[in-house]
Design goal:
Number of helices: 5
Strand content: 25-35%
Number of domains: 1
Bound molecules: zinc ion
CATH topology: Metallo-beta-lactamase, Chain A
Number of strands: 11
Distance between the termini: 34 Å
CATH class: Alpha Beta
Helix content: 25-40%
Radius of gyration: 18 Å
C-alpha cells in the first residue's frame, strides 16, 4: 500500500491524495489549487503526479472546491472510474462544479487578453460546463455508515465530518495483498468543530492504523466561520 500526497501538503488548497493498493489507484479528493490565476492554471491543468486515465476510482470527502473542483478536468482527461460521494455532496457538486466551470472560462478569457498583448499562445479553460455535467454522471452515491466495496480488498465507509452539508470522513478497511495484513486508513477531509445547530458533530472512528488529517487550524483558536 502506497500513499502519495499530490496537493494540500504544505498548503491548504488542492486536496489530492493517491492511494495505490492491490494494483489499483484510488484518488482521495480532486481539489483545485486556488492561488494567483497564472500559478493556479499551471498547477491545476496537467496532473503532474499521475495519469488521469490510470485512476480506477475517486473518493470525495465533500463538495468544497478545494476538494472537488478539479474533478471535471480529471474526467475529461480520461478518468473513467466511479466517483464515490454522499448524496449531499453530489447535490452540492451539481451546482458548484457548474459555477466553477463558468469561473474557469472567465479566468481563461482574462488571461488570454494579456497573453494576446504579450504575443503568447492562448490557453484553454480548465474545463467547460459540459465537462462538469459529464463528470456528475460518474458519481456513485453512498449514505453515511454504509460499507461499500470500492475495489479489490478495499471497503469504504463514509462517517459524518460535521463540516458542511454532505461532508464525510472516509474510512478505508484494506486487505493488503502485499503482506496479507488488514489495515484501517482514516482520511478526515475537513472536520467541523461540533456543537453546530445545522450539522451533526463529527463522528469518531476507532482502531485506525493510519490517519490522513486536515490541520488547517491545528493548535489555533478560531472564531465562528473559520
Ligand atoms: Zn471544506
Amino acid at each position: 500500500m502506497k500513499l502519495k500526497f499530490c496537493g494540500a501538503a504544505g498548503t491548504t488548497t488542492g486536496s489530492q491524495h493517491l492511494l495505490e493498493v492491490n494494483g489499483q489507484r484510488i484518488l482521495l479528493d480532486c481539489g483545485l489549487y486556488q492561488g494567483r490565476r497564472k500559478d493556479a492554471h499551471e498547477v491545476n491543468c496537467c496532473f503532474p503526479f499521475f495519469d488521469p486515465a490510470s485512476i480506477d476510482s475517486v473518493v470525495l470527502s465533500h463538495a468544497h472546491i478545494d476538494h472537488s473542483g478539479n474533478l471535471p478536468n480529471l474526467t475529461s482527461k480520461g478518468c473513467k472510474g466511479n466517483i464515490y460521494a454522499t448524496f449531499g455532496t453530489r447535490d452540492l457538486c451539481q451546482v458548484m462544479l457548474a459555477d466553477s466551470a463558468r469561473i474557469q472560462q472567465s479566468d481563461a478569457e482574462w488571461m488570454n487578453k494579456r497573453r494576446k498583448k504579450e504575443g503568447l499562445p492562448l490557453i484553454e479553460p480548465l474545463y467547460s460546463p459540459i465537462d462538469a455535467e459529464l463528470c456528475l454522471r460518474q458519481f456513485v452515491n453512498v449514505g453515511y455508515d454504509r460499507k461499500m466495496m470500492i475495489g479489490r480488498g478495499v471497503e469504504m465507509t463514509f462517517i459524518d465530518a460535521g463540516h458542511i452539508l454532505g461532508s464525510a470522513q472516509v474510512v478505508l478497511d484494506i486487505e493488503d495483498e502485499a503482506d496479507g495484513k488488514k489495515k484501517r486508513l482514516l482520511f478526515s477531509g475537513d472536520v467541523g468543530r461540533g456543537d453546530n445547530d445545522l450539522l451533526r458533530d463529527p463522528a469518531s472512528c476507532e482502531d485506525v492504523d493510519f490517519v490522513l488529517m486536515e490541520s488547517t487550524y491545528g493548535g489555533r483558536e478560531v472564531g465562528d466561520g473559520g
